[in-house]
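Handoff note, outgoing to incoming analyst
You'll be picking up this chain. Sequence as last confirmed:
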Amino acid sequence: MSTWSGVKQAIKKATGRPSPRLLTVQKAWYITPNMIRVTFSGPELEGFPQGREGGNCKLMFPDDRESMDSFAARLSSGPAPVRRTYTVRNFRADVLELDIDFVAHGDNGPASSWAINAEPGHFLGFAGPSAPKVTRFDADWYLLAADPSAIPVVAATLEAMPRDAKGVAVFEVPSEEDRQTINAPEGIAMHWLVNSNPDSSSTLQEPFIRNLSWPEGRVQTCIAGESGVVRGLRAFLFQEKKLHKEDVYLSGYWKIGLIEDEHQKLKRAGG
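Most recent structure output, in case you need it:
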């Protein structure tokens, strides 16, 4: 029995839950100047659930120069590796390939640093994925919005929509070159707003959305990104536009000045 097979059995016996997958990089490349796509492949993706594009997952990162055996043992007995929340971008069951997109913002965070240096044969831990965030498409009109951290969830949502869907998608990116090609319905108007300083509070998305011509009928949303932007849009959608809670996906993925652990703690406290 391999080290990793033994670890998986130990984790499942101790927790009653499936063990994390230990995924291996097939390739990594920049799809835009500030976005890295990493493709994982291999037998560890056997049985991966289909139709989870847009679902959350937890990625666990090895220490620099850590061996696979050492990392596998840590997944079982600790100390726990650094974890970050990401989104399933694509899964191709026929060839067992999984794509995860990473915002490239230097070596300032463990996920970005890992992705910038990712090469074939590198590895990480994977837990999940959850179900997609938006699974019901029966509105008259759709509003989607994202900064770079949330482009994967909004892109996956657009690609899952009925081809006759109508609405608006608003993407905030660091440069014109960071526009992506997304297989969205023709009736979705795509807008790309350039914010060359994404580490400062955005003043682009909320005014743009407030100035849209609001349609008749029922509206569904898929909106995620920096918490300050999301907070302003939450007030607009619920208090001014009176949208129903079941029609709204709205999530603060990160907050300026905080790492993910700090942000999640703040969210749990109601901040």
